[in-house]
TrEMBL record:
It is a peripheral membrane protein. It comes from Limimaricola cinnabarinus LL-001. It is found in: Cell inner membrane. PANTHER family: DIPEPTIDE TRANSPORT ATP-BINDING PROTEIN DPPD, OLIGOPEPTIDE TRANSPORT ATP-BINDING PROTEIN APPD. This is Oligopeptide transport ATP-binding protein OppD. Gene3D superfamilies: P-loop containing nucleotide triphosphate hydrolases (3.40.50.300).
Amino acid sequence: MAEPLLDVKNLQFRFRGQDQDVVQDVSFRVGRNETLCIVGESGCGKSVTALALMGLLPKDDVRFGGGEVRFDGESFAPSDQGRIAQMRGDRMAMIFQEPMTSLNPAFRIGDQIAEAVERHRQCGRAAARARALEMLAKVGIPAPEQRLDEYPHQLSGGMRQRVMIAMALANDPELLIADEPTTALDVTVQAQILDLIAELQAETGMGTIMITHDLGVVAEIATDVAVMYAGQVVEYGPAEAIFNDPQHPYTIGLMASVPTLTGPRRRLSTVPGSVPSIGQMPEGCRFSSRCPFAAPVCGTRPPLRDITPGHRAACHFAPLELHLERSA
Ligand SMILES: Nc1ncnc2c1ncn2[C@@H]1O[C@H](COP(=O)(O)OP(=O)(O)OP(=O)(O)O)[C@@H](O)[C@H]1O
Ligand code: SF4
Ligand SMILES: [Mg+2]
């Protein structure tokens, strides 16, 4: 099998002062032209996973376990955040959950994009500014020449998110990580932004990791899905398999609220109870405190294993149908 663009193996780390891993044995792959959606409740480790892949975790505050991040065939130790950040250059880009945290309110947006372009391409200011203009037009910002000279506060939330996308994509990254890029936006703007990312992906063949709470979005854009619970990937596979044949009790709980493709969008999280905090995770299966099928064997950790080729779940009883039939 051809080497994927990004191959994450057993990513594992905790923050200083924590006695359990906040991200544990997380593995997934993303190929060119593919979109991996990462879903899971608030606090399950989606954003910190993304930050680790960008080399943005402050290494003094984080203790890494083993694991490996391979990007385009080159291997990195996750603990070497500096080297990952250096390699990332303009090859990987991220759209952050909150656009205002990554736009500097004191600088005109055209200058901010041009600066990112200049830094990575080592071109002159005029060429960088021309690229900034081109990108603003591409992300659908009306009157882009005028907008170049405006400050972030002069733009609406939707326009700011477009600026973030323009900035992230200005250097034609091979991998885009989008962390809830549309959560703060109204539904129409959400749809436009997703269309835009899809369009740019079709044009450049970039791989995309989309972090979202919205299963409607996942149904629309994912080629693959990783379901995270309490810092672990509990189910992983092609989108079709996850939607049509979910195998982990947590995924099944989430899917209970799945909208139809044509119905209204709903956010996930209808599983009763809440995620235990770090330091209070049960031994063995971290989902056991909320799982309707929990049994003594769940006191040992279920490995993420193939249920059908390429469709993996971390549950002792998967495939569940089989188990339920046997115990009937
Ligand atoms: N710098 C930090 N120091 C200590 N703990 C942290 C730090 N950053 C994040 N965490 C903790 O790590 C866990 C995972 O956080 P993360 O932001 O990745 O969640 P998330 O899945 O992105 O949630 P959301 O859907 O709300 O964005 C949380 O318990 C969070 O409190
Ligand atoms: S391993 Fe046990 S507790 Fe965990 S999801 Fe499966 S049945 Fe539930
Ligand atoms: Mg987050």
